[in-house]
Amino acid sequence: MKIHVKLFATLNRFSPGGLPGTLFDVELKEGATLQDLVNQLGLPADETKVTFVNGIVQTLGYVLKPGDDTGIFPPIGGG
To answer: Which pLDDT score is estimated for 78?
Structure first.
């Protein structure tokens, strides 16, 4: 199945072209979870903080559906 992915902030280095927030497609097997997506993209576990699917925050155990729009953010500090 095909899903749409956006990586933000420091995770942009894992996206094609390395541009933050650039949408790209990923092929996953049916029944794949957000954790499967994180693993397939090679994202470090300690850099994966917030995950969204179709604009709603979801846990890494969330089962993806074809055509889902996903967004992944690292921990972000501020001052």
So the answer is: 57
